[in-house]
Design a protein that fits this description.
The complex is a heterodimer of chains A (416) and B (238). Chain A is of the alpha+beta class and 416 residues long. In chain A, 54% of the residues lie in helices and 16% in strands. Chain A has 13 helices and 16 strands. In chain A, strands 1, 3, 4, 7, 8, 9, 10, 11, 15 and 16 form a ten-stranded mixed β-sheet that branches. Chain A has a two-stranded antiparallel sheet with strand order 2-14. In chain A, strands 5-6 form a two-stranded antiparallel ribbon. Chain B has a single domain (38-66, 77-230), classed as 3-Layer(aba) Sandwich (Rossmann fold), CATH 3.40.50. Helices cover 40% and strands 26% of the residues of chain B. In chain B, helix 9 links the parallel strand 7 and strand 8. Classes of the chains: A alpha+beta (416), B alpha/beta (238). Chain A binds chain B through residues 2-3, 5-6, 9-10, 12-13, 315-316, 318-329, 411-413, and chain B through 53-54, 56-57, 60, 62-63, 82-83, 86-87, 89-91, 95, 97, 100-106, 110, 113-115, 117-119, 167, 179. Bound molecules: adenosine-5'-triphosphate and magnesium ion. Adenosine-5'-triphosphate sits between chains B (21, 23, 27, 46, 48-54, 213) and A (410-411, 413). Chain B: One of its GO terms (molecular function) is ATP binding.
Amino acid sequence: MILLRLAIRSLFSRRFTVGLTVFAIALSVALFLGVEKVRTGARTSFADTISGTDLIVGARTGGVQLLLYSVFRIGNATNNIGWDSYQQIAARPEVDWIVPISLGDSHRGFRVMGTSAEYFARYRYRGGRSLGFAEGAGLEDLFDTVIGADVARDLGYRIGDPIVVSHGLASFTEHDDKPFRVAGILQKTGTPVDRTVIVSLEAISAIHLDWKDGSKSANPLSADAVRALDLAPDSITAAMLGVKSRMQVFRLQRDINEFGAEPLLAILPGVALQELWQIVGVAESALVGVSAMVVTTALLGMAAMIFAGLNERRREMAIFRSVGARPRVILGMLMLEALLIALAGALLGLVLLYLGLVVARPWVDAAFGLYLPLTAPGRFEASWIGVIVLAGGLVGLFPAIRAYRMSLADGMTVRN
Amino acid sequence: MAASETEATNAILMSGVKFAWSGAPRFGMSIAELAVPAGQTVFLLGESGSGKSTLLSLICGINQPEEGRIEIAGQDIVPMKGAARDRFRAEQIGVIFQMFNLLPYTTALDNILLPLRFAPERRRRCPDGRGEALRLAKALGLPAALVERTQAAALSTGQQQRVAVARALIGQPQLIIADEPTSALDANAQAAFLDLLFEQVQQMGATLLLVSHDIRLAERFDRRLDILDIADVRREAT
Ligand SMILES: Nc1ncnc2c1ncn2[C@@H]1O[C@H](COP(=O)(O)OP(=O)(O)OP(=O)(O)O)[C@@H](O)[C@H]1O
Ligand SMILES: [Mg+2]
């Protein structure tokens, strides 16, 4: 007991250097655990974005790519699905429901998505939750829009506000002859839906009817004139569908993949997500590796600090030896010191992590649509803190062995 | 050796001891014979660098001779294993250094109690360690509040040396080794310090071996030795 008390008091007497070392370890531990939190947060966030959908259908491309652009609005579709093909698939007996998605336009940095009214009923996220309206209701008029929570918050939109859709994702040509009206604002979901402007599929056709080869025609149709026309689309970007029985998924998938009229691709969202993790996994490991290196650096810094202090503590060790402490006790005391520093650093790191989480959570959510759950530290954190403290003790072995040697060489006559 | 009695009455008995420091210039010493009867107070005189501290390290078993016998309270410490020798020192010997005797970052009380951690016998002799530490401190003129609450580093040099005496004496080891304990003190403090040390040592009936190069302190000791008379010192440049 007295040895533990002495170790703590010795550390306290050097509180500035020790404090800095503890802080360095704490930062590295917070970084390390934070990376892991973000990593798992991102995974659950991605996995939570799509649920209840059995197949996603798009033009033939990579499965991951289809998943990314259809569900996460990341990247662009290179090809579309013909409306005929969509209708043929929709007519298959296995299909319980199907929702078309048409992407390509934007509104002030947010993506515009054309879909059918069924989207609101069918889309599920985070273990089966449905979309809910914070204000207003669904699409009724042709030029109605429903906007996600972030769109409303960032742009300060209320029900009834006008919205002008831009052509393409980053262009200055606007569909300003056909303004939309905000009819509904969705509740926050923590998914890309929050950052989407939803319109009807017909509206997408309507604003593009008088366009030719990607530019506005000289004498555009008026918004009212367009209402009278046939607004069935030529093509859509993708479709989400559910089957009546899960047994039929693979057959339907195979049939779609071998579709005669045009090359199509059907993916199971879960499988595509797995593929995505395999790709992202490399970057993730790199990130975890780098943060582990940072922890190692901090621990080596601690060893360096203990090393640097050894010379002026020779006297202290001679005192220990003179009262009968075995050289092994000196070894142990120095390792104990390293353990205590590492423990303090790890615990402070945990505190920093949670402080950081509380502060950064809303921002991370807003900026990246990444919802980081604030769960109490669990097995994972405990075991890593254990590992880091042990590593600290192990690193402390180096200065401890040096002190051991020094105390043997000095004997009772320390000359300083 | 037939007389185990003579062995037991000698606190220190060295014979045929040879020791050399590694490093350059290489310092070596050999002691043909040195016997200190139990209960004696011995003053060991010598120039700086003559090997006084080295001799004390050998007696304490902190350094090991190349050959010879070093008996403390009748037990030869040379053949002992390291751990046994450390334990033996913890039990039998109280050490006072020249200066910087204390762990600066903790209280005087912790410093006084430290040897008990390594010496179960001494601990058994004073079950109430704290009470005994305070009693010793009081006898040495240190107020309890100072001992319990002040960091050792904040004490004056004289106070620190008295704390060091209390640490050497706690649990009543039978041999007290002091390496120039007064050299950091002024003349008045030196006298007062020696008075207190002698009083306690004699109360305990312990043996005292005190090293100094200040001959003026010598007269109150039972016996005065010059290192050059007992040790053969050699210096080689290697
Ligand atoms: N730890 C050590 N390693 C190597 N050589 C040492 C060591 N300690 C002492 N010596 C050598 O032993 C010789 C005697 O030193 P020692 O400390 O025993 O003398 P001393 O009589 O106690 O001197 P002082 O009065 O200055 O304390 C010195 O020449 C020194 O070089
Ligand atoms: Mg000396």
